[in-house]
Amino acid sequence: MRSRPQTLTPLRWRRRRHDVVFHTPWVGSMLSHGNTLPPGGAEVQVLMLAKALARCGLRVAIIAFGRRGELPGEVDGVAIVRRTPWGRGKVIRKFLEPFKIWWSLWRAPSATVVHRTAGIELGFVGLYTTVARRRFVFSTANVVDFGFRELMPNGLYQLVYELGVRFANAIVVQTEEQQELCEATFGRHSFLIKSLAELKAPQDGIPEAFLWIARLVEYKRPLDYIALADAVPEARFWMVGVPASGESGKRLLEVVTTAAAHVPNLELLSPRRHDEIEELMARAVASVNTADYEGMPNVLLEAWSRGVPALVLKHDPGGVVMRHNLGGFANDSPDAMVQLARELWATRAKREAVAQRCRAYVAEHHAPEVVAQQWLDVVSRPMAACKQPPAERDVRVRNATRRTARS
User: Fold this and answer.
1) Of 157, 280, 295, 382, which has fewest CB within 10 angstroms of its CB?
2) Residue 334 CB coordination number (10 Å)
């Protein structure tokens, strides 16, 4: 009698041993069927990094929010471990959240757990990894991750978050600015690993409009972008604002919609999928950022990968725009912002030099193979060595990989 071939049951699939598991549940919005909203920067980075590590031969998984049947079981070699979204009731949700996090981590056993972005969840993940004796890496996404007292005014939340930082075997930051903040705020050494960005086809033809893409929240300062469009009537401006949740989000959406209606050279576009955002970026004069603070915005990386410069009002992340001459930085001056916009608009048809600089910067500092190699070093080093400053060997490895990417 012929024996029936063994199949991988759902339970055995979920308990498969991994080398690295990323706890970034909101990435589920990118993977669910029928999603039409542009993803967040942290989620884009985690998915790109997970795929890059899988290509290096690691067994990688991502824990993602999703209801039954919404998520694929695997994406480009990365296993997707589904966990249920938060409940409706605030009290019940807060009580159940630690248990949901621990249950999802138990279902995805791994040597290393990476948690992306700040929040009280950091403490819950750190507690689990300490008890389970797994390597725990905290990957920061924004300079505000180091201003946790302002981010979380609740004293208990601050305590749990600080415990999560202490539990972390390693902290990975994106820029030299974040590295200094980590040392000053937490007294911890960190590993500087830049965000990933793949080179795209260079921009072809004359750019058509400035492009602003962000969530409609106060610190992104969407009204400053509308004011810029109003002050430069000879240019065209596109604005893709993703509505935020809650009453404050609704109010800001109404204010932005009303203000934009009075600026004829500004087109307020509806939220759209990532591939449609890429089409707009390929036709942009510049990727505009007006936020009070950032990590390393994906909208800038995606622009530079095509040779599209940046136009930044207040926060130049790590000083890269000025240091590498990748566009314009207004240093929080509206007048300087207007002048820079006019210059970029007037020279939009002839900017081969800045386009080459932008693409060369991405190739040297953000190439997936370079970034993945640096992450491999962090997730594979002994736990006791993770909290030590990077050794001279790490510097040699980093320089060698950069020379390889450049050649």
Assistant:
1) 382
2) 14
